[in-house]
Amino acid sequence: MEKIKLEILGLSPSQSQTGSFALILGEEFGNRRLPIIIGMFEAQAIAIEIEKITPNRPMTHDLFKSFAQGFHYKVTEIVISDLREGIFFAQIVCTDGLKERVVDARPSDAIAIGLRFNVPIYTYENLLSEAGIVANEGSTSDKPETSTVSAAKSFPDQLKDNSTEDLQKMLDQALTNEEYEKAAQIRDEISRRN
């Protein structure tokens, strides 16, 4: 399977799930985005490493790095490997110099560990094609506002009341506004209809 290199584009509070964050991964030489909802503690572990902050005490992901190095293992890459029932799966690829091992992990933990080892993050073309969102370069002013739908329903429930054509316009608008979490929910609704 063809692997696509990803980079971390952003980390922001989730608009739909209190206490959660949207981790936005982007295709290295493309305009597709892969938004993944992660927990607050995992977001903190990723942010601390991105910002190069040294905590007073080692975090769990720092402990993993120390443990791996103590046994002469190094991480070579992180792979966002699968998407099942809306849940992403990842793998941490390790080696001791003789044998390669693959460890299953949540994407948030795998990325937090990958950052500590300064290794690339990948996904497969088929997963990015299925779950990725294409970020548009320009914007058009005739796109509808997504906030015109009734506020009494949750956002995913609001989406069910729109035509596929309207959903595509809403998706374009969300991407233009860099609202990747909202775009992911719209993408999921469009996918459910296909």
Provide a descriptive summary of the structure in words.
The chain has helices at residues 40-50, 60-70, 107-117, 125-131, 155-159, 164-176, 180-193, and strands at residues 3-13, 20-27, 32-39, 74-84, 87-95, 100-105, 121-124, 133-134. The chain is of the alpha+beta class and 194 residues long. It folds into 2 domains: 3-131, Bifunctional nuclease domain; 137-193, no CATH class. α6 runs antiparallel to α7 (180-193). The chain is globular. The model is unreliable at 138-152 (pLDDT under 50).
Can you describe this structure in just a few lines?
This protein has 194 residues and is α+β, with helices and mostly antiparallel strands. The chain has helices at residues 40-50, 60-70, 107-117, 125-131, 155-159, 164-176, 180-193; strands at residues 3-13, 20-27, 32-39, 74-84, 87-95, 100-105, 121-124, 133-134. The chain has seven helices and eight strands.
List the helices and strands and how they pair.
Blueprint: E1 3-13, E2 20-27, E3 32-39, H1 40-50, H2 60-70, E4 74-84, E5 87-95, E6 100-105, H3 107-117, E7 121-124, H4 125-131, E8 133-134, H5 155-159, H6 164-176, H7 180-193
Parallel strand pairs: 4-7
Antiparallel strand pairs: 1-2, 1-7, 2-3, 3-8, 4-5, 5-6
Helix pairs in contact: 1-3, 2-3, 6-7
